[in-house]
Amino acid sequence: VPWIFLAPALLAYVTMMIGPSAAGAAYAFTDWNQLGGAVHFIGLGNFRSLLHDSVAVAALEHTAYLAIVVVVVQNLAGLGLALGLRRALKSRGILRVVFFAPAVMSSIAVAYIWQYIYDPSGALNTALGDLGLGALNHTWLGDPRVALWAIAATVIWQWTGYSMVIYLAGLESVPAELEEAAVLDGAGAIHRFWYVTWPLLAPATTISVVLSSILSLTLFDQVFAMTSGGPGVATQTVSTDMYQEAFVYGHFAYGTALALLLTLMVASMVALMLMGLRRREAAMA
Amino acid sequence: MRAILGATRSRPLNTAVLIVALVTVAMVVAGSGAAARQTVTLRLVGVAAPISPATTAVINSFEKSHPNVKINATYVPGDTYTTAVAAQIRAGNTPDLIEVFPGGGSTNSVWELAKSHVIRPLSDQPWVKRLPKAFYPAAQYKGQTYIYPLSFSMIGIIYNKQVFAKYHITIPTTYSQLLSTCSKLKTDGVAPITLALATPWNTQLVNYALVASLVYAKNPHFAADMAAGKATFSSSGWRQAFADYLQMAQRGCFNNGYTGTEYTASLRQLADGKAAMAVQVTESLPAIKSDNPKGQFAMFPFPGVNGPPSSIFIPVGANDGFGISQSTQHLPEAEQFVDWLNQPANAKKFADALGDPVIGGSVPHLSSDLKLMEPKLAKNETTTYMDQFWPNSQLQPVHFAVIQEVLTHQISVSQALKKMDQAYHKH
Q: What is the mean pLDDT of residues A22-37?
C-alpha cells in the first residue's frame, strides 16, 4: 500500500529526472559532435581522451583546490560566526541577516559585483590605496597566480552565511544545562567547545560540509561570469570545461563524458564523506 | 396553379436556402479575408548589443511594411550566443531565422550550420546575385549560398583625437613609430593603448591587426596553404606577431591592469581620455561615442610592420547575416524577411545602425571617423578576419586562451603556436 502513495511522485521523478539524465549520460559513450550528425557508439573512447587532455586535467586540479579551500574556510568561518552570534548581542538579529543576505542573492549577480570590486581600478584596489596599502594592489582576476583564489574568496563570502545558519540551528540543539555543568566543573571556553559543543554539532557539521562540498565541486556561475576560466585556463573548473567542450567547441559527447565524470566524482566523494561523518556522529552521540 | 401552389409552398424553403447560401458565402469570404490578414509570427534569434539595436531597427521597419508578419526576436550576448543557439537546435526548437556567423570557425557559422543541415540553402533567392564574389567564402558552403552578410567591419586603432592633440601626437604609420608613440604617451601619464584582455574575444584583435601585415600581406594564400598542410602557425609570421604583441606589453603600450580589464571598462578609458588608443573593431566606435558624446574619435590602420604604407594591411570581415531554418513552418514569410532585409536600402539601414560600412558596390563610402581606413579598401590592402576560414570551432577559443597565457607569462610563444597548430588539426 505505501508504494501506491509513493507511485505518482516516483513516476514523476523517474520520467522527469532519472530518465533524461540516464539518456543524457548515454551520449558520453558516443561520438556525438555535430548539431545534426550521426551518432556512433565508441565505448570508453571519450574517457580515454580525458586522460590526455591537459585542460581537463588542469580543470580537475582547480576544482579540487577550490573544493578544499572553500569547504574548509566556509565551514570554519560559518562556525565562527555562529558561535559569535549565539552570544547575547543587541545587534545579533541584524548581524545574522547581514551575514546571511549574500546567500539569497543570485550567484551571477554576486559574481558581477565582485568582478567590479576586483577591477584593476575597482573598489578593492582603491580601498587598499586609500589605506596606504597600495603596494598590495593587484590585477586580481587577470593574474593566473591569484585569480582562482579571488574566485574562492567570492564563493566563501557568498556562502559563509549559509553555513552559519546551519551551525546556528545546530547550536540551538545543544542543551544549556550541559554547558552549565561544564562551567561548574571548571571547564574553560575552549574545553567547553571541544568536549561539549563540538561533538553535539556533528549532525550540523555533516550537513554543512556535504552541502558546501557539492557546491564547490560543481562551481560554474562565478567562474564563468568572472573569468570564463581564464587567464588562459588558470581558473578552468570541470563545470566550465564541460560547458566549453559541449557548447563552444560542439563536442557534445566529450562534454557529456566530463559531466558524467563530475557526477560520479561528486557522488562518490559525498558518499565517502557521509559515511565518515555519520560514523563520527555515532561515535559522538 | 400547382406550380403556383408549389411555388407558394416552397417560398420559405427557398428563402431559407438563400439565407444559408448567403451566410455561407459571407463566411467563406470573411474566412478567406481573415486568412489573408492572419498574422504569422516568425521567431528570430540574434546577437545582443552592439548588434541588436540594428536588428531591432530593421525588424520594426519590416513589420510596418508587412503587417501580416510579426517577428519575435530574442537576443543573446555574444559570448553565450553559440551556446544558446546550439541548445535550441538540439532541443528541436530551432528559430525560423538565425543570425549566422560568416565562414567557419564556430558552431554557429555558415559552414557548420550548413554541414549539419540546420539552415537551408537560399541560392535561388534574388539577392544572391548582388553578393560580391569576395564574400562568397563567408556566405557559401559547397557552392550554395546561405546568408547575405549585411555589412563588414574592420580592425584598426581607434584614437581619442583630443588626447592626441593635447600631447602633440601624430598618427604612427610604422610599427616602430607605434612603439615610440607608446613611450611618449606613457611618459605623459596616459595609457597609450587600452586593452581588455579579460574579455576573451578582445584578446585576438592586436594579433589579427599584426598578422594582417606580417603574414597575409606577404602571402594572401596563407589560409589555403594551411588548409593544404603547406603552412603552420609555428613556421609563419604568426610567431613574429606573438613576439610583437608581447613586446608591446613589455614596452608599456597597454593600460595598467590590462590582464584584468573588461571590454566596457576599456572603452570607457578611451572615451574618458585615460587612454589614447584602443585596437578595436569598427562596431566599438558608437559605444565609445556614447560614453563621451563630446569626444572626438576616429580609426586609423594598425601599423603592423616597418615599411611603406603599401605593406600595411588591415583585417576586414564580413558581418553576420540571417539564415533560414530547415525546419521553419513559415518558409514564404521567412524568405520574405530575408529578401526584404537584403535589399540595398534596408541593408544600409542595418549597417548604419551598426556603425559599419554596407556590403555592395566597389569601395564603400565610409563615415568621417573611418576615412583613414578608406585607402586600404580602395587599394585592396585588406585581409579577411583569420578565424572566418579556420576549420573548426575550437581554434578561436584556443587562440584567446594562449594569448592570455603568453601575456601572463604562463607559456612561451612557441608553446602557444604549438597549441594553435594542434587545435587547427582537431575535428
A: 82
The whole-model pTM stands at 0.83
Q: Does any CB of chain B come closer than 8 Å to the CB of residue A232?
A: yes
Which residues on B lie below 8 Å from A33 (Cβ)?
A: 427
Question: Nearest-5° angle of CA B331, CA B338, CA B108?
Answer: 90
Which amino acid belongs to residue A81? Answer: L
Report in angstroms the alpha-carbon separations of B83 from A254, B77, B89, B167.
Answer: 15, 10, 10, 45
pLDDT exceeds 50 at position A40: yes
Average pLDDT, chain B: 88
Greater confidence (B66 vs B1) lies with B66
- The CA distance from B261 to the nearest CA of chain A, in Å, is 7
Q: Which cell is A242 given?
A: 564541460
What's the gap in Å between the CA of A188 and the closest CA on chain B? 49
DSSP per residue over B233-266, as a string?
Answer: STTSTHHHHHHHHHHHHHTT-BPTTGGG--HHHH
- Pick from B325, B405, B406, B422 the residue to mutate for testing the A interface (most A CBs within 10 Å): B405
Q: Which pLDDT score is estimated for A104? A: 94
Q: With an 8 Å Cβ cutoff, is A195 touching chain B?
A: no
Query: Across the interface, do A243 and B117 touch by the CB < 8 Å criterion?
Result: no
Asked if A119 reaches chain B (Cβ–Cβ under 8 Å), the answer is yes
Residues A108 and A119: their CA atoms lie apart, in Å, by 16
A254 and B CB contact within 8 Å: no
CA B72 to the chain's CA centroid: 21
**Is B86 in Cβ contact with A35 (below 8 Å)?**
yes
Residue with the bigger pLDDT between B359 and B20: it is B359
Q: What is the pLDDT of residues B264-293, one digit of tens each?
A: 999 999 999 999 999 999 989 988 999 999
8 Å CB contact of A250 and B79: no
**DSSP code for B43:** E
pLDDT band at B2 (very low <50, low <70, confident <90, very high): very low
Question: Dihedral, CA atoms, B320, B321, B326, B330, nearest 10 degrees?
Answer: 140
Contact B90 A35 (CB under 8 A): yes
DSSP B110-152: HHHHHHTT-B---TTSGGGGGS-GGGHHHHEETTEE-----BE
Q: Is A33 on the interface with B (CB under 8 A)?
A: yes
Cell triple for B253: 603600450
User: Hey, what's the cell of B69?
Assistant: 508578419
Q: What pLDDT shows up at residue B24?
A: 54
Distances (CA, A) of B205 to B209, B386, B411: 6, 11, 20
C-alpha cell read off for B20 = 444559408
Give the minimum alpha-carbon distance from A144 to chain B in angstroms, rounded to a whole number.
Answer: 7
Average pLDDT, integer, range A266-281: 89
Q: Which of B348, B372, B359, B370 is nearest to B318 (CA)?
A: B359
Strands B144-145 and B140-141: antiparallel
